[in-house]
Hints:
Helices cover 43% and strands 19% of the residues. The protein contains 13 helices and twelve strands.
Amino acid sequence: xxxxxxxxxxxxxxxxxxxxxxxxxxxxxxxxxxxxxxxxxxxxxxxxxxxxxxxxxxxxxxxxxxxxxxxxxxxxxxxxxxxxxxxxxxxxxxxxxxxxxxxxxxxxxxxxxxxxxxxxxxxxxxxxxxxxxxxxxxxxxxxxxxxxxxxxxxxxxxxxxxxxxxxxxxxxxxxxxxxxxxxxxxxxxxxxxxxxxxxxxxxxxxxxxxxxxxxxxxxxxxxxxxxxxxxxxxxxxxxxxxxxxxxxxxxxxxxxxxxxxxxxxxxxxxxxxxxxxxxxxxxxxxxxxxxxxxxxxxxxxxxxxxxxxxxxxxxxxxxxxxxxxxxxxxxxxxxxxxxxxxxxxxxxxxxxx
Length: 353
Ligand code: IPM
Ligand code: MN
């Protein structure tokens, strides 16, 4: 297969983990005889500094011409505590989602046995938890009409039937490929937008008789996630709720640095770590590249290249078993491995597999 990949390293630790992601993809493609090409483009604070726009037209074009985007992270503290900043790195991320029509954000919440002890939850509670959160990514409050003056402000949680239906269908398709259990998370006891979600879901459910559909209020879902995370198989929800719940999800696994995600929709799909740009670690060679590497696995799997994805997952599991780990997850007395060293070990595993 021929693969054209747009590479968007972004900010902070982004460039370091991006390099590892590219090396791993190249090694997998060499092994399986795929022809892969990479084209880098700027985004985030890096792009603001260079061209004054966090998602420049040129980057958009590179993404549109590619089969997939390997994205790393954006965000820079220079903008965080400055509410009057005119442009911010995060706007680049939102622009990318909107312009590429990435309405479905797939975030697996998966636990790794050897890291369960890092979870803030009790081992017996969280071990084996494995679900997918499907977050609607181009609608709701983040994109609805906004207003702000010195005395009042609002954001509009606007959703159309079409937007709701297409993301619910993504949820059902994932549920069908997993344990056929879909939980629709909303706040239908208070929000009109949520009542539309629930109505559309109730209409769609009979078309998926093989899937059990249940409904849960978001406040309850946030509680259930820490009390009984194994309850969930596939969860589908709107943009804001999904943003919040997926942060909760990534932290209960105890392995935030290992979680990848995919955003798919109308144009080129994007694969990126769930974690952010960790500016304080920039250039220190300590960032965990595994979420980026597993994003590459999701990328291959998206194109139905299952063996390629599986090989990456095996390599990651082997590195963890061999205690080839970055400092934040290294075992006591374990050797010191940086971003590059973990990457090189995994590339080597792939070559020798
Ligand atoms: C995420 C991030 C973004 C979001 C921010 C950076 C705009 O937190 O991908 O979850 O809220 O969508
Ligand atoms: Mn978020």
